[in-house]
Amino acid sequence: VQLQASGGGLAQSGGSLRLSCAASGRIFGINVVEWYRQAPGKQRDLVASITNFGLTTYTDSVKGRFTISRDNAKNTVYLQMNSLKPEDTAVYYCKAGTLRSDYWGQGTQVTVSS
Fold first, then answer.
1. How far apart are alpha carbons 2 and 26 in whole angstroms?
2. Residues of the chain under the 70 pLDDT cut
3. 3-state class (DSSP) for residue 1
4. Residue 72: what pLDDT?
5. Cα(66)–Cα(88) distance, integer angstroms
6. How, if at all, do strands 2-6 and 17-24 pair?
7. In terms of DSSP bridges, do strands 17-24 and 32-38 run parallel, antiparallel, or are they unpaired?
C-alpha cells in the first residue's frame, strides 16, 4: 500500500483547507484510514479516523470543525478542515491500517496564521 498525502499549505485563522490521502497498491485489505498530526517538539497525535464501514471518530479539539470522508472510486480519504486555528499548525500524516500492517504517507505541512 502506498499513500500520497497532499493539500497542506498556509491558511489564516478561521480559514479552511482540505487534505487528501490517495491510496494505491494492495488497498483491498485496508480497514481504517487515519489522519495524525505532529507539531514541532510534540508527539504525533491521532486527529480523525474512518473505517471501511464509514464510521468516523475525531479527537475532541477538532470536533465540529474537521470532517473526514472518503471517495471509494478515487481510493482517496479527505480531511476537510474548517475554522482553522493557529494550534492546528502541524505536519499532517495519513495512515492506512490492515490486519497485518500499518502504512504511512508522507507528511503535508499545515500552517495557520493568526
1. 8
2. none
3. coil
4. 92
5. 11
6. antiparallel
7. unpaired
